[in-house]
Amino acid sequence: MTPSPAEGATQRPFAGLAQHLTALRRAALLQRVLAAAANISRGAVQRTESGTAAPTPAVLDAYLRACRANEADQARARRLRTRGRTAQRDRLHDLSVPAPDFITTKRDLALALAELYERAGAPSLNNARLSNCCLAPPRGGSSTAKACRPAPSS
Questions:
Q1: Which of the 8 DSSP states describes residue 97?
Q2: pTM score, whole prediction
Q3: Please, are residues 20 and 46 in contact by the beta-carbon 8 Å criterion?
Q4: d(CA 19, CA 49)
Q5: Could you tell me which residues come within 8 angstroms of residue 52 by beta carbon, excluding any fewer than 6 positions away?
Q6: CA triplet 55, 59, 65: central angle to 5 degrees?
Q7: Which of 24, 31, 71, 82 gives 20 to 30 Å between its CA and that of 50?
Q8: At CA 15, angle to CA 12 and CA 21, rounded to 5?
Q9: Cα angle at 48 between 47 and 53, to 5 degrees?
Q10: How many Å apart are CA 129 and CA 89, to the nearest integer?
Q11: Among 137, 147, 75, 86, CA closest to 116
């Protein structure tokens, strides 16, 4: 019995990303040439193009640089990676999130934050890109952390 398209989507959550990246590479490079140019293993290139696993942000960036992808292609690849991570984790349907105007409890806020995290592709803290963020000083450490300043208004 052949798997249905829905089953294939859950087995290959990064199929769209794989197709996009393969098309970029095929325009000019072989897998081994791309791997050498990107300074990543050929196995990483093959895994990325298989669509079964997400490339790390570093591998994705190296891949895109080696393919000389333009900004639109880079943005599309990152968006497809995020969608794949969201599909792979498959947790959004379990969240019952209130509209922002109706967040009144800590639980509501936690649900809203969980939804945002899942929609962002559940990035690791190492890969999360935060702007205008400040860090509290480490426990027992010096208070040399930068003071928080509001973002400039436009």
A1: P
A2: 0.64
A3: no
A4: 7
A5: 11, 12, 13, 14
A6: 125
A7: 71
A8: 140
A9: 75
A10: 20
A11: 86
